[in-house]
Amino acid sequence: MKYSIYAALALMSLASCENNDNRTDDARPVDKQAYQFKFHAYKVRETVLYTGSWGQKSNPEESYLSNYWSSYQEPVWKEIYLDMKNSSLKLISGTSADLTYSIKIVNDSVLINDNSGKPDYIGDFNANNSTFTLKRTLRYLKRVPRNESYGLTIAKSFFFGTTEYSNMFGIIFNSPTDMTQSEDVVLWSNVEYYYKKE
Q1: Digit-coded pLDDT (tens) for 133-165
Q2: Do the bridges between strand 88-92 and strand 56-58 make them parallel or antiparallel, or are there none, so unpaired?
Q3: How far is CA 117 from the centre of its chain?
Q4: For the chain, how big is the Rg over CA atoms in Å?
Q5: What whole-number distance in Å separates Cα of residue 17 and Cα of residue 85?
Q6: Residue 122 vs residues 77, 96, 163, 198: alpha-carbon distances, Å
Q7: Which tens digits make up the pLDDT trace of 69-115?
Q8: What is the pTM of this model?
Q9: Is the CB of residue 184 less than 8 Å from the CB of residue 174?
Q10: In angstroms, rounded to a whole number, what is the distance separating the alpha carbons of residues 10 and 2?
Q11: Which of 23, 56, 161, 188 lies in disulfide reach of 121, CB 3.0 to 4.6 Å?
């Protein structure tokens, strides 16, 4: 009898281990570790133009942008691969223009490390609807000759992220009032490229 009580207790302890109701099952979905996005649309968010004598400001129509950036409607990179586990982002063009960056995500903002020591903003990742917005910007500056000491200066570049007034003035022109010649130009445009999960 004594052994049958011990046997019953042993069986009950085994049965209780098998049917442990104290599991730590989590009903939340597991965060996805990698996303493959494909380009599907673009939008010109802003184009700002200052032209010389005294830097008259305007916001030209989108078609004006093609004078400086002929391919703004199509991104170089048709696909984006976001690897959350390895904190990397790959921009895929299908040519030698493919780029891979280490990333950090702060809220929805994606910051790349391009070895400059300072993270650069490249766009936004929305995990809820599995979309990525790549942000590109055109910066164009032109200063025509003033006198014997200054020659023609033209600077045109494309960056990730966005451009605003403070990025453009303080380089060649300190302010729009320094734009004294009729052909002086300061132009920037911010374009967003929208990618959806494949």
Answers
A1: 999 999 999 999 987 767 899 999 999 999 999
A2: unpaired
A3: 17
A4: 28
A5: 34
A6: 13, 20, 12, 20
A7: 999 999 999 999 999 999 999 999 988 789 999 999 999 999 998 76
A8: 0.79
A9: no
A10: 13
A11: 161
